[in-house]
Design brief:
By secondary structure, the chain is an alpha+beta fold. It folds into three domains: 241 residues, Beta-galactosidase, Chain A, domain 5 (Distorted Sandwich); 191 residues, TIM Barrel (Alpha-Beta Barrel); 159 residues, Aldolase class I (TIM Barrel, Alpha-Beta Barrel). Helices cover 18% and strands 35% of the residues. The protein has 13 helices and 36 strands. The strands form six sheets. Strands 5, 6, 7, 8, 9, 11, 12, 14, 15, 18 and 19 form an eleven-stranded antiparallel β-sheet that branches. Strands 1-2-3-4-10-17-16-13 form an eight-stranded antiparallel β-sheet, with no helix packed on it. Strand 6 and strand 7 form a beta hairpin. Helix 5 runs parallel beside helix 6. The longest helix is centred in the N-terminal third of the chain and has 18 residues. It is globular, with a radius of gyration of 26 Å. The termini are far apart. The N terminus is likely disordered.
């Protein structure tokens, strides 16, 4: 009887493996995913878009020391689900998000007793899949993830090189077949479809890079732990989602909510203290060399400077002020640095400054640079955050500009655990975070909305001490880096040709040859970047004296970082980008182009029907005079701009005229 039962079970498993429907599609039917098992019991997924094969994800599974997790599987059961619901966020590009998908969960086992559920969710804008393992082991040492992405045909891609320590690398436009390594998001166009490979819900696991192993095939490579293994996990665990966003046009990727939808709902019960903000600070002067982080004659974070910045913020409808270099420890930079997260330098009266900020209704931001010393920072978290909370501080900017101890990689499992530990400690003390040198965003800001924004790319500071960021780069990152989530680029430099200034102490010693150190876009594009480069914590990063009395700074005073709705309206990676956002009853538009002058005829049908708006337009000056550029060439003056006004409705078309490296920004205010 027992033998008959076993034989029957084996027969039913084989029957299920051979006959079960292992396919599912997006709710609109355009995307289709088919699963399969090869002769060795290794799962794969094939993705079709509009009936055409787009890619195959094969060799699905992991390798570990303790269990067989990659092969020998047969299908036991297939379950399905459908979801169509909306959810709301305390902040976001869109505060109301629709989650519409179909799910297929394939339950598999192998002769070694390992159970694998391959969970696949297909949305109208792409798909996600993850591994859910039950092994019977107490713990596992993951040595590899075998996931491979094989494109059906070649195409064009936009990405940064694969790197487990930094994302501050220039973007590249390459044939898919010409990419050797890439970090994600990895954006591509192939077969007439735009797509981007990334991951969602990254917790307690290393980040994923892509390494080419054949002309059109890429294998997953995980950031290693110091001993070479990739992760240590429990015997029952699940991986992050592996995601492929898909769209018929490039802006469809920007407008996708797939990454967020693959994360769990908010884990913070009371989110009333989580509020988007605009901010200023002493940051830019440190990168220019006019100020320092250390307590010397050029110290940036002094009591006098703090009070002046707080007054400026209060007078200009700016909610926050950030101070870097306020705390003891910067003089140890470059050695075995040690930062004190409680003690300010003698010339920074923390209690007085906090009291003055509260009196003026301005949010005081604290900066915690760790230099990569994550163990030291973890030991100080609760005491530091408790102190900040007592001072009325609700925003902390963190930094990890240095090697982590014990050969821990910045993007490895241990680092991911650290970044999340900081997020949760901050939430316990009602503190929002702006993380620099972070782990990349994977939509976890849905679950932990106090994780407001991150750097994670070449930001504005690269313009202060290098050839800087081109207008092409700024037209690329909305389609690559910003697909993962908000970015603290720190935009808005008005003093475009700052390198021509003379007599700035520290300038030469900090930068050496300054001939290429200037902003590579027009002033109008700098303004537009406040809209294009989304961050719920948005900075006006220039020295505040460059804003005082400047007519164009009115845009930032009017701008609202707490938007309700957003949509990318037009654009192509590396060429140009147009984005609109709504905050309350006002709309803000930002547009930018590469080195090619460009005019975009933009229908204003995103405005409310039946409402007349006054459009205040900040544009490049078409009559800008030619001036000598820092590199010796002559070109139209990038500081030249025009401000104009006109009445518009949703039935109008606005011609957005942009100079080379230029842009345009518009505020649409309803007329009463």
């Amino acid at each position: 009887m027992k033998l008959m039962t076993i034989a029957c079970a084996v027969f039913m498993t084989v029957l299920c493996s051979c006959s079960a429907d292992l396919s599912t599609s997006s709710p609109d039917g355009i995307i289709r995913v088919e699963a399969a098992l090869d002769a060795s019991g290794v799962p794969s997924l094939t993705v079709y878009s509009g009936g055409d094969r787009l890619m195959t994800m094969d060799s699905l599974g992991l390798e570990s020391v303790e269990a067989v997790m990659s092969h020998g599987f047969s299908v036991v059961d297939v379950s399905r689900d459908r979801v169509d619901e909306t959810w709301t966020r305390p902040w976001g590009e869109n505060k109301v998000v629709r989650d519409r998908h179909r799910e297929m969960s394939i339950l598999m086992t192998n002769p070694e007793g390992v159970t694998l559920t391959l969970r696949v969710r297909v949305f109208d804008d792409g798909l996600g899949f993850r591994y859910e393992y039950e092994t019977g082991c107490d713990s596992l040492t993951v040595t590899e993830e075998n996931t491979r992405f094989c494109f059906a045909e070649d195409g064009i891609s936009w990405s940064i090189p694969g790197n487990f320590e930094t994302y501050e690398l220039d973007t590249r436009e390459l044939p898919v077949s010409g990419v050797e390594t890439a970090n994600t998001p990895f954006t591509f166009r192939t077969g007439g479809v735009y797509g981007s490979i990334h991951e969602a819900a990254l917790y307690d696991y290393p980040e994923m890079n892509l390494y080419r192993c054949d002309s059109l095939e890429f294998r997953t490579e995980l950031a290693p732990r110091p001993d070479g293994c990739k992760a240590r996990v429990a015997g029952t665990f699940m991986t992050p989602w592996r995601t492929v966003q898909l769209a018929s046009d490039a802006i469809g990727l920007i407008n996708s909510s797939l990454i967020l939808n693959l994360n769990e709902p908010c884990a913070i019960e009371d989110v009333s203290w989580i509020k988007p903000q605009k901010y200023v600070g002493v940051w830019w002067g440190m990168h220019l060399g006019t100020h320092t982080w250390t307590c010397d004659s050029r110290h940036g974070a002094t009591t006098e400077s703090a009070l002046r910045h707080i007054d400026f913020a209060a007078d200009n409808n700016i909610e926050g002020v950030l101070f870097e270099g306020w705390n003891k420890g910067w003089d140890t930079w470059g050695g075995r640095q040690h930062f004190d997260y409680l003690e300010p330098y003698p010339d920074f009266d923390l209690e007085r400054i906090a009291s003055y900020a509260a009196e003026k209704g301005v949010s005081l931001w604290m900066h915690n640079e760790t230099g990569g010393s994550i163990f030291e920072y973890e030991a100080a978290l609760d005491s530091a955050f408790e102190k900040y909370q007592s001072l009325g501080v609700h925003v902390v900017k963190t930094g990890y500009a240095g090697g982590m101890p014990g050969n821990i990689r910045h993007h490895s499992q241990r680092a991911v655990q650290h970044y999340q530990k900081v997020v949760e400690a901050a939430a316990a003390h009602q503190i929002m975070l702006d993380a620099h040198e972070p782990i990349k965003e994977t939509g976890t800001c849905r679950t932990w909305p106090n994780m407001m924004t991150r750097e994670g790319a070449r930001g504005m500071e690269w313009n202060a001490w290098s050839a800087g960021n081109t207008s092409e780069y700024l037209c690329t990152i909305p389609f690559v880096r910003l697909l993962s989530g908000p970015m603290d680029y720190t935009p808005g430099i008005f003093d475009i040709y700052y390198e021509t200034a003379s007599g700035w102490p520290g300038r030469e010693e900090w930068n050496g040859d300054n001939s290429m150190c200037y902003i590579k876009t027009t002033l109008a594009r700098q303004i537009a970047n406040w809209v294009i480069l989304y961050s719920p914590l948005q900075m006006a990063s220039d020295l505040i004296e460059n804003y005082e009395g400047h007519p164009a700074f009115k845009f930032f005073r009017d701008f609202d970082a707490d938007c309700d709705w957003s949509e990318a309206l037009a654009g192509e990676p590396g060429d140009y980008i147009v984005v609109a956002r709504r905050a309350g009853d006002r709309f803000f538009l930002g547009a930018g182009t590469d080195g090619t002058p460009r005019t975009v005829a933009l229908p204003l049908d995103f405005l409310e029907d039946g409402v007349t708006y006054m459009a205040e337009i900040y544009a490049d000056d078409p009559d800008a005079p030619e001036v000598r550029q820092p590199d010796g060439t002559r070109a139209p003056d990038k500081t030249a701009y025009r401000i104009s006004q006109r009445q518009v409705t949703s039935e109008d078309v606005l011609d957005i005229v942009m100079a080379a490296d230029g842009g345009q920004a518009v505020v649409f205010t309803p007329e009463k």
